[in-house]
Amino acid sequence: MRVIYLLMVYAHVLAACLLVGGSLFMLLNVSVMGAHAEVRSAAPIVAPWLAARFRKIRWHSIAVLMVTGFFALWQRGLSPLALAGADAWTGAWGHTLACKLVVFAVVLGVMAYVDYVVSPALGRAMAGGDAAQAGAVRAKMNRLIKLNSTLGLVLVGLGVLLVRGV
What we know:
Elements: H1 2-28, H2 37-40, H3 43-75, H4 80-84, H5 91-127, H6 131-164
Helix pairs in contact: 1-3, 1-6, 5-6
């Protein structure tokens, strides 16, 4: 059982690296392509292509994080039934877990909003040739990506606290 646990932890850490690292890559590189003259002409083609590819990686990473996260809780004696009780949420460890789950839910909400509302709005603005609208939507998207990248780093920190037994 120890080998399975270690494999699940490895998958959890790898998925977190893909999610946070990919978000930071998108934030630091793709989201600013239009601001750099040497790549500006490629931005309308490359940025949506990279975003679409990362979207698949991101949602698969989320699925892996959810499965492996629940497995890790189960290994610590917290079954879904135990999580329904108040005892699971007491003390520093329980409060940290609650905080991590709330931040994770916010990250999921922001990701869904970007993928299913903001990104299509950007596509419509770009297809319609409305540069002002596209710029406004792109700025909104960049703010949301910054928020989620920051929250991803917070999640990593909370995960470290949980593993170290706050």
